[in-house]
Amino acid sequence: MDARTGPDDGTLYVATDEAESGSEAPFRIVYRDTDRTRRWGFFCSNCDSFDTAMDSMGRIQCNGCGNLRKPDEWDAAHE
Length: 79
Known about the structure:
mainly beta, 4-stranded antiparallel beta sheet, 3-stranded antiparallel beta sheet, 7 strands, globular
């Protein structure tokens, strides 16, 4: 795990062995502790940013570079 300074100046831990695929590069899973008990969110490995968002369909998008993970399930009613 890589220790990095998060947006609130606290230490966050990026799991280099856990990822979700993205259109440009993987989204790494981020934790608040080294024991991986307190999940924080995602880290975009394309632009090295914590500025990511996930919607209720499971889509992950980086707000910095536009890297995108498509949703797990797609339903036309949500468009």
